[in-house]
Design a protein that fits this description.
This protein has two helices and 13 strands; from the N terminus they run H-E-E-E-E-E-E-E-E-E-E-E-E-E-H. The chain is α+β, with helices and mostly antiparallel strands. A hairpin with a 4-residue loop joins strand 8 and strand 9.
Length: 238
């Protein structure tokens, strides 16, 4: 028979183990990482009457990596910003409309795009769009009357399904799924098909989310706790 002090001690160990296991599975760490992607030129040199034929300038940012993000990852927000210098429109069909597209990729591995500037391409940029576990794609535009815009920014909240933007915005696609990762990869693709010539500088992407320990880590923790409890129980029963 187990005496009362020993049974109370065993019960205390059991409660402590349950608390540790529950807190490990329920607890989530938050993170917010900002990637600095430098500069890109985007332009559409199409001439009437055939538009969207190029030549196009567009670019893929460097591949950002934060190796400190690991575990089951849930992206909650993606924010972007860039300074803008708008040259005279290449053609005047759009008047004073400045428009371009953002596409932001977030995931546990590279996305297959070679970073860098593409100049004078006749491959339509919207045919190069890709896929990722977290993908945010939207366009921004500004119809200016006195001076062109000097910057663009936007932020998408995946939980609330809401977009905020410094300029008029058309949200084309935004989606995310939780995934296991041992590093957070981020890349952005920028282009225009609006007969504009825009130098984008100081391009930044901020990714926020939560992580919880990987299932394998939880399994090891659970095994360790159960093993320790077995040892304690055997000692108490002697």
């Amino acid at each position: 028979m187990i005496n009362r002090p020993r049974s109370r001690l065993l019960l205390s160990f059991l409660l402590a183990a349950v608390f540790l296991l529950v807190s490990s599975t329920a607890g989530a760490d938050t993170f917010s990482v900002t990637f600095h992607f430098g500069n890109l030129n985007i332009a559409d040199g199409s001439t009437p009457p055939q538009f969207f034929t190029g030549p196009f300038n567009y670019g893929f940012s460097p591949l950002g990596l934060d190796s400190g993000v690991s575990g089951l990852t849930n992206i909650t927000n993606v924010s972007v910003s860039a300074d803008a210098t708008v040259s005279s429109p290449l053609v005047l069909t759009n008047g004073d409309l400045v428009a371009f597209d953002w596409e932001v990729y977030v995931g546990p591995s590279p996305f297959g795009f070679v970073p860098g500037q593409v100049t004078g391409s006749f491959i339509a940029p919207d045919t190069l769009t890709g896929a990722a576990p977290t993908l945010l794609r939207f366009s921004q535009s500004d119809l200016w009357t006195s001076a062109p815009p000097t910057g663009f920014s936007g932020s998408y909240d995946f939980a609330a399904n809401t977009m905020t933007s410094s300029q008029a915005t058309i949200l084309k696609f935004a989606g995310t799924l939780p995934y296991d990762t041992n590093g957070l990869y981020v890349q952005t693709f920028l282009w225009t098909e609006a007969d504009d010539n825009i130098d984008l500088k100081n391009i930044e992407v901020t990714v926020s989310g939560t992580t919880v320990p990987e299932p394998s880590t939880l399994a090891l923790l659970s095994s360790g706790i159960l093993g320790a409890l077995g040892v304690v129980r055997r000692k108490l029963l002697r």
